Amino acid sequence: MKKYDLIIVGMGPSGVFCAYELIQKNKHKNILLIEQGKSIEKRNCPIEKVGKCLKCKPFCNITCGFSGAGAFSDGKVNSYHMATGVKDNLYMGGNDGPSFRAALSTDEIKALFAYTDDIYVKFGGNKELTGLEYADEIKKMQDKAKKENLDLIYFPIRHLGTEKAHLLYAKLQKYLEENHVNMIFDTIVSDLIIENGEVVGVKTLSSFDGKNEKTYYSSNVCLAVGRKGADWLAKMCKKYNIENNSGAVDIGVRYELSDEVMKEVNKYFYEAKFVGYPSPYCDKVRAFCQNPSGFVATEVYDNALTLVNGHSYFDKKSTNTNLAILVSHKFNHPFDKPIQYGINVADNLNQLGAGNIIVQRLGDIYRGKRTWSYELENNKVVPTLKSAVAGDITFALGYRTMTDILQFIRSVDKVVEGFANPENLLYAPEIKFYSNEIVLDKTFQTSIKNLYAIGDGAGQTTGLIMSSAAGVQLARFLSEKF
Ligand SMILES: Cc1cc2nc3c(=O)[nH]c(=O)nc-3n(C[C@H](O)[C@H](O)[C@H](O)COP(=O)(O)OP(=O)(O)OC[C@H]3O[C@@H](n4cnc5c(N)ncnc54)[C@H](O)[C@@H]3O)c2cc1C
User: Fold this and answer.
1) How far apart are CA 452 and CA 220, in angstroms?
2) Phi, psi of 112, deg, nearest 5
3) Per-residue confidence (pLDDT) for residue 165, from 0 to 100
4) Whole-prediction pTM value?
5) How far is residue 143 CA from its own chain's centroid?
6) Using one digit for the tens of pLDDT, what is the confidence trace for 412-442?
7) Domains of the chain (ranges plus CATH)?
8) Whose CA is nearest to atom 46 of ligand 1?
9) Distance between CA atoms of residues 18 and 32, nearest Å
10) Whose CA is closest to atom 5 on ligand 1?
């Protein structure tokens, strides 16, 4: 029976960077990575050619395969360790990086993020950081936001662009191959093998037909399954009593408006993280994943659940900026299933859009009417997601979510004139499923011995730099153990 030193489930940035860092520590370790999607050179999204999402089978190429959701991401590598407008000049994503905070000091986290950022540069990441030369303008805008009860967080960004992100990850895949890391694609990890409270391996099935069960053994297994695998991970938690907390689910819209309105924000910040707690609910509402001159995109999850996202290319440009506006919702008693709540909301919206993303003008929401496709033809903000269907998102987004979003838009409008322009577009559903927060010890180990969890799927990170850094940090813990 062949035994690996480490099995990593999922080849998103967290899993890939874990393997990379282990190579730096000791070249001769026997590492196996298993991924349900395809290798990087086989990943391609047909939407650009055919103009609509074909719901690729067995898995969406945007979210699955080597480098996970990173391959088709906008490739904004955020220097969270150089943030301003936030305590200690360290931003830690939407959920404040609980596993990092528990394991490392503020300075150690900053050093880890800087080290991880350097790896991106080493593999071809853009050397330039956005915004450094606009410190005064940024401060002025942050002060203006404060008056509207908004935090405006700035951090420099290394923007790769979708096509460069793809090339960068291709180089990383080659690097892992050359360093003899074992990689299996088109293979789902269907189950864990746990004996006497300890993980000893995993079971797999073919991604194509769900058959051909195989078993792989290792006394160290790392779950790096991303948002895509969050649902599966929740099932594993239930089956094996892996301790976890049901956290928040972030529900909202992708907001699209003209570059002209966002000109200064795009120039100074590239991505401006506005955070507010609008009345009357005081829920956390945040703007993030801003894509200047970008494109709104779809991402497809299990059972054809279709969500909206956004990205921008390095060379190809639109005249619109898009960004996410998300509301964090928590549940406790008697209902504590945030993932299910998010799925229900998305499902209703998908049904209203006949399987497509719905788009509505802000002004139509204020007027209490749906948007019609002919109205979009002459709209000042022309939708960049051509497959989106004009309709009414308020049929399915709850009153509380909608109120939070509209209040937030009004507040940001006082800082960025035109942010509440009636011709701006809201696409739905945009949902972040990082709600199942796995309880980890200081070495990212779950309540099952030798079973580790990192990245977005474990509810620990949000975004490329944090998920990649989690992989690096786990490798450091493991290299002391091996
Ligand atoms: C369109 C888009 C744009 C984005 N833009 C940015 C950006 O500009 N900047 C930024 O910081 N972040 C961005 N993100 C988010 C970023 O991509 C993620 O935060 C990051 O990829 C998370 O890394 P991860 O390793 O935790 O998970 P993922 O990247 O999601 O990878 C998890 C992998 O695990 C695999 N997997 C899951 N379950 C199983 C299983 N049971 N068996 C085998 N394999 C499994 C999945 O197929 C997937 O490949 C974007 C995301 C999307 C979708």
Assistant:
1) 8
2) -65, -45
3) 87
4) 0.86
5) 29
6) 999 999 999 999 999 999 998 765 789 999 9
7) 3-125+161-245+437-481 (3.50.50.60), 248-432 (no CATH)
8) 64
9) 11
10) 73
